[in-house]
Batch of 4 targets.
Target 1
Amino acid sequence: MIRTLLLCVALFSNYTARAEPPQAPPLRILTYNVLYGFNHGKAPEIGAKWIADQKPDIVALQELNGFKQGTLEKIAKKWNHDHAIILKEKGFPVGLTANSEITVIEKRLDGMWHGYLHCKVKGMHIFVVHLSPSRHAFRMKEASLVCAKAKPLLDAGESVFLVGDFNCNSPLDQKWLDARPKDKEIIDEKTAKRRAGNSDPDSAVMSQFLDLGLIDLVHAKQPTAELQRGTFATRLLPKYRTDEQRKHKAWRIDFILADPTLAKRCSSARIPRDKEVDLISDHYPVEAVFAK
């Protein structure tokens, strides 16, 4: 009798363990400026393999120069994504790939330097941006356009990501940026004027997005010392090859921003610095992982 009872308990425990639904895997999102189509077209295979190794669910890309819709679809399959959308097929396109269906909400070029892509994936709105690299005033206008689209979604309680290359500083980094030694490089008048036009007083561009309530995930999850290493530039550029050359010269200009509800689900956010990325681009990628 006891033997029979123990057998029944064992069988029931085994059944219960089998009957429990498997735990859903985390959601992993990656954004990456890949430098003119993966280092000027020299490293698409290295780039594709590195992305595949990260096992992302969603990948946002900037500087897909030379790519068309078909070529993006083809390379995305190398990291097991059967869905891909490119903004345009000339200039500096942004793109989005995913392991589930992508619904395009808007492809916007008007009023934008490179344009933005607004899609919906897994019930979440994703804006992929690449803001002006050289004109602060233009970036301010671009930020206003994106905010005008994102605000109603946030007010309605929708899930929203804003990702990409923002080409601007964050006010959250202002303290350590201000503490950097001042650049004593002697420059000509033309260069000085260009730099003045590109400067970002008070991190005003990023402040527009943060004022919407969007959360900078890497800032929330990483210590200041890691933030100071920046997302630009990698050791691919000659001026950034050594640690001494990189000291006080790195910039954090690539971001994953998320609405507060998504941010609470974020288990980790980082700037991957694997040796391969120094061969792929002058930017480091940014990654965030979310509990289901």
Note: DSSP finds 13 helices and twelve strands in the chain.
Target 2
Amino acid sequence: MLHLEQLSLNIPETTKPRVVIIGGGFGAVNLTKYLPDDQFQVVMLSKQHYYGFWPLLYQVATAGLEPESIAEPIRKLFDDRNDFHFRFVRVTSINPATKTVTTLIGDVSYDYLVIATGTKSNYFGNEQIKHNSFGLKNLTDAVNLRSQLLQSFEQANISKDPELRQSLLNIVIAGAGPTGVELAGSLAEMRQHVLPRDYPGLDFRLMNIYLVDGLDRVLPPMSPESSKNTHQYLEKLGVNIKLNKLVSSYDGETVTFKDGEQIKTQTLVWAAGVAGATVEGLPAETIERGRYLVNQFNQVLGFEDIFAIGDIALMKNEKWPKGHPQVAQPALQQGRLLGKNLVRRMRGQTWEPFDYFDKGSLAIVGRARAVADLPGNKSLKGFIAWIAWLFVHIYYLIGFRSKLIVMTNWLYRLFTYQRGTRIIIQPYVQPGDKVGEEFARQQTVD
């Protein structure tokens, strides 16, 4: 067994400027692409060793795609570079005075530091919900949720207790943003086309999918027209939409709302908000609403050599007084521009300020059901928006292998309504779930 004192970052010395990047998401990867290998040494530190296409996490959670079809090892993305160094470590702090980054296995110095840590689930200080609910922020979350859903159906199929069966068939999704909407739509289509074939003895008319939000409409980030169309699509699919509702507690068996209403369920999916994944070490005045304040060049407030990009960056201007939306496009665009600007600095050229080009927003509810907000205040819905969603998501997947696998899976589902990944590889057990513990024990008995 390895011990921490036996490990080190093992970063080669260099005479080139060293760019240390914390994170391995959209912004970090796109930045690296625009840093020439012969001009910079790039060190990427991330607590995940893969680059994931997070807009499709819900499809992994609902057994539509395998985890590896939406993820690539970060090292594979840059295996043609000689001075790129990836380390699978967690960063614990930043020391701007010594220009070093501290990890659990040592320090690394930087000439330029880029924070691209993204977001984490925001439970608003409610430890009970954090402990008992299911998030959907990475592949581990998606696989755990998939296991939980499939186990619930297995247990409901053999349960003799009507109340327990109903609890297993009730699914509550807190948060009616894109993640919650797409997850609810996918589960509704599973209920209609897939699950009755797998469990012919189970009446899936009893399965309830609740989509809950504290605001007065679904898809709050999108236009009112897209929100209205999405609401109608979800209702046609039989999703129970509860607006102006706030979850106050969840003990693993009962969701309780602020107004006192309760729903018995074994599965609460938490998609109700995110918070910036900040790193210790920078002054408190550099952070606002959980994000690093940056100028038009993505420099963190008060620092010339520390940058923040993507979801963790808060760049306020007249057009975006609350900062840019925490979606993929700002991260991709900021990463690309920062890479180009660092090259410009090497050449003694003037930097270009960041100007976000909003390419629009998309959300899918189900087969031939989608909405799109396009530049110029134009909106699409239905089949055309669905085709646009499919094209955009295939386009932005990394690697030909991923594109081929995802496209093949989608074509298979288009003609058969089937999902080929309904496998419980490792049973997930919530704390205190005796039935789940027994199921897990069965998997380990020789």
Note: The first helix runs from residue 26 to 33.
Target 3
Amino acid sequence: MKKIMIIGIDIGSTTTKAVSIEDGRVIHKVKTKALDAVTSATGAFGKMIVENNIQIGEIRRIMITGAGATKLKDDLFGIPTGKAEEINAIGIGGMFLAGRDNIIIANVGTGTAIIDASSDRILHMGGSGVGGGTILGLAKKLLAVSEFKSVMELAERGKLNQVDLLMGDIMETDLSFLGRESTASNFGKMLDSARNEDIALGLINMVYQVIGMLSVFAAKSKNTGSVVVTGNGSSNLLGRRVLEEITAMYKVTFEYPEDAEYTTAIGAGLSACTVK
């Protein structure tokens, strides 16, 4: 029996991801990097079919989304190609990976989008320009480091009390639910002796505290106690540690579904599953 396949492609500002979907199931996943949208999309598509021995005739439709999607005007390789609105794709993909609807999603990429997703509507609640791009951009200037892996390696050896002003620096006792190790001001201390390792950890802590608090506000506004974290930033282990501290303070839990970094590509592909 001939396979009928849909390819979902998320053309991001730094990384492009592609998935293949058959009968509502994600079969293959790839990601690539390139300097422009066309190269990114065609490169991800090519990598998908070559690595997985997919025949062009097996593909019914391609769905693209993301920052670079608007730059593609024509069908790719003669295959009907549609565009999925990015917020809808995140919502659809997030619900699919979470295995339920009525969820709040924090999609952490170059920036961060907060989305309220259910089966009858997907709402962009807001977000922030603070995300992985913030960490990398500041690291290039402050640390002379241009690879995210290098930032993480530095941060793993960092000490937050060298850069952040902590509650223990200004209070002799805990304040409400804020312990002495809680941040009073990001980079509010910045000792002359602070090392690159400390600054790297301070960057990650600052970004994920912003993401975490935006998520808490969104969750509480919808009377829910959990947030599904998707996007590239969902796999940042130091970031997860920051979010765990926020959970302890505000009783909002953060979930990290498998394949969360492919959420938007999955949502784009699934959005076409009812197209005949």
Note: The longest helix spans residues 196-221.
Target 4
Amino acid sequence: MRRSVVVALVLVAIAFAFVGGPSLFTSPSTSDVLPEEDEEPDLVQFEGSESAFWAYLNAQDSFEKRSPINVIVRGETEEVVRLLTEEGETDWEELDEESEDAEPGTYSFLAEEGHHATGTDWGEAAGTTRYAYVDPGDGEGQWVTETLQLEDGDYYGHRMHIRLYEAPNDGDRWVAMQAHTEHFDWFTLRHRVDGVEAAQLAIERDFMSLPQVDNQSDVTRINLENAGPSDADGWATLVDLVGVVLAPTAIGLLAGGRVSSGIPRTASEHLTAVDRARIHAVTDRIEPRHLLLAAAILTLFLGVRVGGIALERHVEALSMHAIAALLYPVVALGIPMATYAIAAGLERRIDAAVVASLSLSLAVWLDYGIVGVDSLPVDVVLQRMLVVVALGLIAGGAARRATRESRFNDMLLVGSALWVLVLLGTLFGYV
């Protein structure tokens, strides 16, 4: 029992040192745990427009400041979409029912292959519905779903994602957008938002690249005072396609470094004979099965990411849900089962546990490098730390010294239970 506690403490230290610590100290969005709630939110209204909108989106009909609106285009919705996605005089074809994988309220369009006028290959998108609050001007505000979703990138990799919401009145002619970058999280089977600034800049560049848009007067920035979530600074891009000088006004709501591959020479010069002996003792304990364990964890974890992107791009017969159903078992079952099978041939519990936890930590960071993630919320950091500890306990519980009395020892049982609870908790949104 004492040995198991020591192993567990070592795993917690590894999880914090290699996952939690770097994420908490380098990620700009780790402080965003619970969003603020606006009890009497201000709405944004433009001159010449009767309708107004709240400057955030939400997953439900409540005024939590979650997803900031960061692009507004004055113009007809059809014209805005055409400018973003046109390819010269390309004819658009609507996706058939089998190809469409969007939530209710989402409309999908697919362009023929070619060069997009804006330089960005904006196309059909699938994503969870988010709600915007709009007031047509009579004080009877309502929550509405998106008119359209667009994306550039891979659903199972990294993408820029736009949700568009049109004015409730035909004559108002504005489209509010929430644009962000995101990546698919295989532990939660959901997309995780990385930030909003990069996508906003991409849309700015897209409109400024169009010959009918004057860069100096038609594309400006206005302060919507919706800073806070992710890397949002409160300034939204305003694109004027109707030739009207506009100014937003707020109205009150009327109705309620480099990785070292070895020991630096400067450090080795200060090692004592005892230190060198300890290092040699550790390296002498490395055997092929340690390397096999590390390779298996890295291959399975990263293989799911690469495999998901490859299937999405090249196997049209598989829907997004089918790809997830095919690959998620590799994460949920394949990684712990392979870890147990390989670690069962190792002698020492601490060796197996450390190799497994370090390998999963490395796999996590390599995966983030593949999809270009540079910021993480606290709940994701905590979840990654827990799975690193859980897999280390499974590996340690499988080692021969841990199974001398029983294969179902405390380390294996605790590690397996933690793994299952964390995965179920993340799937259902509790972790």
Note: The radius of gyration is 26 Å.
